[in-house]
Amino acid sequence: MNMLPDLAQQQFALFLLPPRAEGIQELLGRLALRGPVRVIDGGNSIDAFWLSRYIRRHTVQVEDILRNITFARSFTCYQMQTQLRETLEADMPTVVLHMLTNFYDENVELKERLRVLTHCINELYRLRSRSVVAAVVRPDKITDQPDRIALLEHLRESADVTYYTEPPQVIEQLSMF
After folding, report:
1. What is the pLDDT of residues 93-144, one digit of tens each?
2. What is the DSSP letter of 75?
3. Strand partners, 135
4. Strand, coil or helix: what is 7?
5. Residue 150 has pLDDT above 60, yes or no
């Protein structure tokens, strides 16, 4: 993702990113350079080294800027719901990484996962009343599984805006002989 959009206040933005997308690290860096940002990570996906390098390109106060980022991790859909419910409304952006990863647990019925996801979306709506909310999903984890498609569609229909990025194309070198 070369050009990230400027997110509008009071907006719930959904990003559909390919694997290894550095765009989300850039988004976190840009938000942290502006002030405090809250991150809830559903997929243990933060690349702190890349993020600190991005910030260093913009300021020498790397440690101060990194302190602007508050991290929390969730390992189940219920933990995601609890973390969002316990997040206080504040004038700071909230970014939820790999939002649906915790909802892929097939030991939980789809109906229950959709119910919990609806509660999470309602919490995101509550948080967007004071600032930007962004959720990130890796569509390559969806494939052709109907449960996962249903979860993604529910989230996509709830977002104010959705940003899609294409994975980088591999250019095949032609043989000269």
Report:
1. 999 999 999 999 989 999 999 999 999 999 999 999 988 899 998 887 777 7
2. S
3. 14, 96
4. coil
5. yes
* Distance from C-alpha of 39 to C-alpha of 153, rounded to nearest angstrom: 23
Kindly state the tokens that stand for 96: 């939820």
Residue 123 to residue 174: CA distance in whole angstroms:
52
β-bridge partners, 12: 133
Residue 163 is given by DSSP the state E
**Residue 129 DSSP label:** T
**Residues in Cβ contact with 93 at an 8 Å cutoff, skipping those fewer than 6 apart:** 7, 31, 37, 38, 131, 132, 133, 134
Would you state the torsion angle of the CA atoms of residues 158, 131, 90, 38, taken in this order, to the nearest 10 degrees? 80
Antiparallel, parallel or unpaired: β 69-73 and 12-16: unpaired
Say what the pTM is: 0.84
For the beta carbon of residue 147, count every other beta carbon within 10 angstroms. 15
